[in-house]
Amino acid sequence: MTNSIADIEEADCFLITGTNTTENHPVIATFVKRAVTQRGAKLILADPRNIDLARFATVWLRQKPGTDIAWINGMMHVIIEEGLADEAFISERTENFDAVKDVVKKYTPEYVETITGIPAEDLRKAARLYGQADAAAILYAMGITQHITGTDNVKSCANLAMITGNIGRPGTGVNPLRGQNNVQGACDMGCLPGTLPAYKKVTEAAERKICEEVWGVALPDKPGLTIPKIMEGARKGTVKALYVMGENPLMSDPDITHVEDALSKLDLLVVQDIFLNETAEFAHVVLPTAAWAEKEGTFTNTERRVQRIRKAVDAPGQALTDWDIIARIANRLGADWNYAEAREIMDEINKTTPSYGGITYDRIEKIGLQWPCLNPEHPGSPILHSVAFTRGKGLFSPCEHIPPAEEPDATYPFILTTGRILYQYHTATMSRRSRGLTSRTPEVFVEMNPADAQRLDISQGEKLKISSRRGSIEVFAEVNDRCDEGVVFIPFHFSEAAVNRITNPVFDPVANIPEYKVCAVNIEKAA
């Protein structure tokens, strides 16, 4: 997030897209709802489903899944045409605006309506609300990123913020809501195939140097493999071993049948986790690890805030902390790592990660700090880009609408989109072990529009077979108005009917994120 969670309440206008915030980030949703109901902030919601936030929306843009670039370009078209662009901000703090201006010329609201299904006047209303606001904040999540155009979707959100000068001030910004509690921290620490801590590129000798000096080793100069490339390599035999830590690809990756095939061909699969999940069932070795309340360390949350966690109870059985397991394996392989406690690792992070340079255990004893925090005197950074962008001037990126990789046809006439629900979490490794949570959502379901159900003679609770070009699953009908006609939704938490058996294994070419949010399916009554 460029801004802070508390800062959200200072927005005069919200553009929320690709996030079912009340179910996936319920605490953050309370800030939005308070701003709308108590301060009169305006809410623009762009979502194919009739989610709870639609009740609070000033205008709801119900786009066809996979058409986000089109409606964002349409909003910029209106903003430019009606003189709502922040010319001073564009001139002083950005570059390449003319390229975007040229692209969005053809994205009139009427043209956008033919692509997205959003009524032209609704799009104009949304553009005016966002463009006229003193402080407007964009919130998005994986409904924006999990497309073959995910990178361009994010760039489009950045374009929209810059064209109106809604960046670097309270109540503004481009704010991705992270999907898990420490995914931000993992990325910060270099858990990406092409980066070192603080997003330093492994391909750049000068950026490798700081870690090489601290660690006393020469680092590789080539990026590693993304998850899709790893699975492809396992199937082909070029990847022989895989170490999976805190991940469950046999639930979370697309086209699970191919993932099973890939994992079965490995010479060695090691899984390090707190429970024996679906992937661990395939493992040659399972390493039991301590859960969050059983260890010391830090988490970095979605607003870049680094927070202490403290051990509350001992880990059961032979379970060890993640860092201890990794260090023991490294030493068996010939390293000489001598950490005595987690604090020593944080001291090392201060040396290798400039944005964490001033974040010490002592300073975050009670309240966390937001990076960048460059030295022990630095107060942290609640808002990014207030004076300048990291690269100097903000770069406008022209983006064109590209259809999803798979669209409905006569054989597979429905669009399937996937996501999470309030009472389950991610691949349900933890949440489906809770009797209370499972009692609220005992069975996997497919949401479908009443008109579609009537046409197919489907009743509430009826068992259905959902098929794609990859396979099929059986689920129960949940007939309601949350999905538009021709669109269905299935949560991905249920292993007995894992929706990722049927999702499309196509990926954004830049970030290698799968297109979980759009694929074509057929619906019929189960035998």
Tell me what you see in this structure.
The chain has 527 residues and is an alpha/beta fold. 30% of the residues lie in helices and 17% in strands. The protein has 18 helices and 21 strands. The strands form six sheets. Strands 14-18-15-17-16-21 form a six-stranded mixed β-barrel. The protein is globular and about 65 Å long. The model has no long low-confidence stretch (mean pLDDT 95).
How much helicity do the residues have?
Answer: 25-40%
Low-pLDDT windows of residues: none
Mean pLDDT: 95
> What value does the Rg take, in angstroms?
24 Å
Mass-distribution shape:
globular
In total, the number of strands is: 21
What's the arrangement of secondary structure elements?
Blueprint: E1 13-17, H1 21-24, H2 26-39, E2 42-46, E3 59-61, H3 68-81, H4 87-93, E4 94-95, H5 97-104, H6 109-116, H7 120-132, E5 136-140, H8 142-145, H9 150-163, E6 174-176, H10 183-188, H11 205-215, H12 227-236, E7 241-245, H13 249-252, H14 256-264, E8 268-273, E9 285-288, E10 297-300, E11 305-309, H15 322-332, H16 342-352, E12 369-370, E13 394-395, E14 414-419, H17 435-440, E15 445-448, H18 450-455, E16 463-467, E17 472-479, E18 487-491, E19 504-507, E20 514-515, E21 519-525
Helix pairs in contact: 3-6, 3-7, 3-9, 6-7, 12-14
